[in-house]
Amino acid sequence: MSEKPKILLVYPYWLEDRTHTEDVVCVPIGLYWIAALLKENGFDVELRNWSDRKDDPESIRAELAAIAPDIVGLSIMQANRFGGLEIAEIARQVNPQVVNVFGGVGATTLWEFLLSTYAQVDCCIVGEGEYTMLELAQTVESGRRDFAAIAGLALRGVDGTPTRTSERERIRDLNTLPIPAKHFTYQHVSLTRGCPGHCTFCGSPSMWGPKVRFRSPEHFVDELEMLHERGVDFLYVSDDTFTFDRTRVLAVCAEIMRRGLRIEWAAISRVDRVDAEVLAAMRRAGCIQISYGVESGSQTIRDALNKNIRAEDVRRAFALTTSYGILARAYFIYGCPGETDATIDDTLALIRDIRPLIVHFFILSIFPGTALYERYKARTGATDAIWADEIEDIKHFETDDALDLDTVERFGTRLRETYYAWLPEFVDSIELVDDPEFAPMHADFLARLGMTFNHGDYASNLSVLDSPEIAERLYRRALSYHPDATASLDLGMIHQKRREYPESIRVLARGLMANPGHERLSMALAVSLMNCGDFEKALGLLAPMDDNPQALHYAAICHQHLGQHLEAETKRFRLAKIMEKAEQPAS
């Protein structure tokens, strides 16, 4: 092949449907890094998010036929492996000469099983994929299909047996990679690769290795700035432990501030890798949420999971994070080795201490590439062939004689019900740092939290009692710090729905005075004024919004009422003149 091959990179759909899809519908950032390197080397690359195509194989077939790729790269996590296999099979039917390449943690850990079981998989990238994929594309460009000389690849040998090529050295200087934001728009970014932890349930060490590698603060913030210029103002920092190198994090935050980037972002960290200085800097630079893996309140279970943190670290991190107006999100795992009612008591006791405002509870699952999986295989004699079954994972309790489904479900119900019963108390006990610099940020934090109770996840959660009242308290507290636009709008709307129009006008007007030109505040204030009969003032607020259909509708109502009022005044004036004339004595 003398022409450069056309390459399609795909994020496949998952096996099971999900109620909450926000964590599984985003294309992994690694696919963008691969695409960027290929583009920088002159290759024609297209990228598709097919996480929503599970029930639409014909649209996949049609798009593959239209794109006509020579190479299809599929990002395999674990639970989307069957989606990848189905897409690869369709690609092979559309073009029998296509090269199907699997990459990602699923391919890295299950390459031998995939290659020995599924003919539509031609090769698997093991580990980082950028330069392995580039060399594969260059090999296809040269007209060859012998990939044995490419490091970091798994393929079939001459006898059809799966085999690995030499191991590829991990990229030492991540700054040498082209930034994907030059070519693509996305929300997930990363400063590092790797994690200092060795949790038994996590596959990160097998994917990235034990050593954490970094980008420079300038290179990372260059990416943030490029994405901001593309219209992205909220980002997910997906590092396993963003704050691993505190000096680098402080430099990143300083660089964001120096460039005046008005962005917001969420991050992931460890409770033993944050302090007051780091958290203050992160909040100033736009961080609004940090997720922490706590896993359990039982030290025995945390030790069994190799989660090397102490309860005092957890308490300190959650108190500090919340105090700077950053939402501290807690992850807990249950159904672990040694789980009992007593260890669930320990978890609830720790939750009571740290008062998290968002908690996610998960049943412990066993995945390939983890220490738990290796122990499971050694204990049971199982092989990777178990993944031929249409399952996303293996629950630990299914392999533990001391646990069963009913018991684990009871644990989960108890954790959730107790947490939601405590949540209103946690909200009312929020303690924020007493520092005028952070007052606007505190207002923003409280207003965002109020939104979750007013019209977010908690508003629709039947286990959370009195969510409208909680939202109102949060908005009022937010406004005690600063006339935040969101708090003003939502509190004003609460009064408006109660037909408390004078109070609604007071709140909305104060918010608009502090946030001039805010369209939604102007609209809401106009509606409350209309309900009080002040159509002239309402029209003055609506007039600048001449491209907003709703504003035009309200303006028309105002004109109608003002016209009727003018007509009535004219009639009254004429009648008064007639009466005045009638009362005058005849000359």
UniProtKB/TrEMBL annotation:
The keyword S-adenosyl-L-methionine applies. InterPro entries: BchE-like (IPR051198), Cobalamin-bd (IPR006158), Cobalamin-bd_sf (IPR036724), Elp3/MiaA/NifB-like_rSAM (IPR006638), Methyltransferase_Class_B (IPR034466), rSAM (IPR007197), rSAM_horseshoe (IPR023404), rSAM_sf (IPR058240). Residues 181-414 form the Radical SAM core domain. Keywords: Iron, Iron-sulfur, Metal-binding, S-adenosyl-L-methionine. Its cofactor is [4Fe-4S] cluster. GO terms for cellular component: cytosol. Pfam families: B12-binding, Radical_SAM. Residues 4-147 form the B12-binding domain. The keyword Amino-acid biosynthesis does not apply. GO terms for molecular function: 4 iron, 4 sulfur cluster binding; catalytic activity; cobalamin binding; metal ion binding. PROSITE patterns: B12_BINDING (PS51332), RADICAL_SAM (PS51918). This is Radical SAM superfamily enzyme YgiQ (UPF0313 family).
